[in-house]
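User: Could you write out the 3D structure of this protein bound to N-(iminomethyl)-L-glutamic acid? I've included everything you need below.
Assistant: Certainly. Input first, then the structure.
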Amino acid sequence: MMSPTSSADGVWRNLRLAPGLAVPDVALPAGELAAVVVQGGMLRWVGPTGAVPAAHAALPQHDGGGALATPGLVDCHTHLVYGGQRANEFAMRLAGASYEEIAQAGGGIVSSVNATRTASEDALFALAAPRLQALLDEGVCAIEIKSGYGLALEHERKQLRVARRLGKTFGVTVRTTFLGAHALPPEYAGRSQDYINLVCQEMLPALAAEGLVDAVDVFCERIAFTLAETEQVFRAAQQLGLPVKLHAEQISDMGGSALAARYGALSCDHIEHLSQAGIDAMQAAGTVAVLLPGAYYTLRDTQVPPIAQLRAAGVPMAVSTDHNPGTSPCLSLLLMANMACTLFRLTVPEALAGITTHAARALGLQDSLGLIASGRPANFVLWPVAEAAELAYWFGHKPAATIVRQGRVANDGMGICAAQGARHGA
Ligand code: NIG
Ligand code: FE
């Protein structure tokens, strides 16, 4: 299933650093090509190719030939682990049904819950692995994976364990998010408060104790959980010292984002109906706005998130696939960058920061991911493109990139290593 990888240790010369996504140790004169030094799996030096310190001369040398270099991509919002698929709902929506109507008729999230509950851990792993591989093949180096299709302790555990196992097996940073409050499971119909008590008092503490939870999320919406229920989950997370994030203001303005900001949320996600008060609260708390154009597109939403206001307020904007079987069966983060520009009017630099720097911040990983800078684990992608805008411009196309993930050459699509015949560790 997995291709063999080799150490990325070496001097990678003749690169063009994507504007705004790298912090060189030595300033780059205009037009000069850059080099990055990888040693022990870490970025050790970034600067002009002509100024690589002599101490690194003995390392393998790789000629990037002018390739564009970006940080490894970060997909900061996914529901990657689930059973079944929901193409039937796609057909229902084509026939005129809305997301809310499908959910109220017992479809939607609950139908994925049934398929996830009946699947074994191994079966869920086998289903999620090719999805993850598709994202990795495009340059993703870190990914968030949520639970939320189990909605019972043993099934939420199963999803989160698969997420951890994916990270180990594929050599990719996986951040797990407990989304027990995603939907009301059928056996709790009419007993929302009882279910939230179970989430807060049993499920979350047990899963956190097992080391399966990096963050806690809630779907705060009129078809999901109320503001008060959301706050109860946030309090439980806070007591365990876990950061929170929120599916907020997707269908209506519930005020969820302002609440999340009060709990210092890492991110508020979707936010098509976000108010100015929500924006101000997020700005004050340093909360990232995660834009999910795939769900917007699938649901044929017409309410664009308040991009100009977020920009004016200086709220960092991330962009993610929201990969899930209902509203965003998408496995291309570059397509999401394209849609963030085309549908939401992000600029290209905003979209590229959205799938790197700001996505890392949405996971609390801004000090180790999302920028090419020395002192960080080596995660970068070399692209065969003339300008950075091409990454958001092409769609339905996977560029043959060379991908360095966690200090390993995960993919040498540009043939840079092969061409050099450079020495590589096993
Ligand atoms: O992010 N909004 C809620 N959760 C998912 C959809 C999940 C589903 O429909 O299965 C989302 O869009
Ligand atoms: Fe989601």
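The chain is about 35% helix and 20% strand.
User: Perfect, thank you.
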